[in-house]
Structure formats: structure tokens, C-alpha cells
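re the bet — no i am not wrong, look at it urself. input seq straight from the record:
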Amino acid sequence: MLCVSGLLTACASTPPTHFYTLESQSCPPVAASTAITKKRLIGIGPLSLPALLDRRQIITRADNNSVQIAEFDQWAAPLKDNVIAVLSKNVATLQPNAIVRAYPWAVYGNVDYRVIIDISRFDTQLGKSVNLEASWAIMEEKNHKIVSNGQAKIEQPLNDASYNSAALGLSKLLSELSQQLSLALVQIPQ
């Protein structure tokens, strides 16, 4: 009886799990020509993330090259899907003369350009900073030709050591990456 009572007490004292999501950032549109008659179709994806991040729990880095897995602070949706959705929404806001679709876009038909993104780092050191490192390429879908490519290495300080602050900081990093992608898309000749 004491064992059962002890187990019930232990289960009752488990802290609640907190769920977080990345959010798109409202950004002013990149300067675009109003003379465009046909809207370009832009596909965001495919996107790759490090295997370490492919989990529900939020991963943080420590000073000694170790990582911490937060059992009670988790992503509300698969991180990869959330990142693609946020990038798609951000680029759509920045590209008002384009139709932007998230990968996989096959249900909507073909796209004119696909933005391939390989994220090698997307993490936080609680209370210190959030970091994003990625390489990207814009491919013309018709002939599979790379028309632009680049790399991003973005870091922002954090105001506090909360997971909420980390999720907000990571969202801001995606906003900066979206601006970089949008500028590259604007420079592609029609």
C-alpha cells in the first residue's frame, strides 16, 4: 500500500509540460516592381535540420560542448514543419508579387523557383544567445538550374533564460533568414 501511495504522489508532483511554437514576424515588403503581370510561384523547401533537433524536446547548448534536452519544454509541432511554415509565411509577406508555398507543394501544382535550405545550426544557449547557421540555394524549377545561393550565420542575444524568450529569439532569426532569401529572390531576373 505504501508503494502505491508513493507512486501516486510521485506522479502527482510531475511538472506540467510547456509547449512552444515559432512564429512568423511581420516585416515590411522588399521593394518590388508593381509592373509584374504574372505572379511568380515560389516553393520553400525542402529543408534539412540536424538530426539532434529532430525531436519534440527543445535542445539547448551548454558552455562545455554538451547539450540539454528539456523534457518539460517542447515544440508544439515537429520543428522542421514549423520552420518551413514560418519561412514560407515570412517570404510571402516580403514578396507580395509572388505566391509562396511550403514544401511539399505538389498539391498546388508546380513552382517557378524552389528555395532549398540546409540548416546546420538552430539552437540556443539559455540566457545568452540564439544561433542560426544555414546554406541555401534558389533553383529554377523548369531546368533545375541554381540561380542564386548563399549562407547565413546569425546570432542574437537573449534577454533572459526562459524557453519563451528562446522561441521568440529563434523566430527572429528565421525572420532575418527570410529577409536574406527575399532579397535574393528579388534579384532574380523575370
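see?? The beta strands are 18-20, 40-48, 57-61, 67-75, 98-102, 113-125, 129-140, 145-157. told u. also The chain has one domain: 50-186. so pay up
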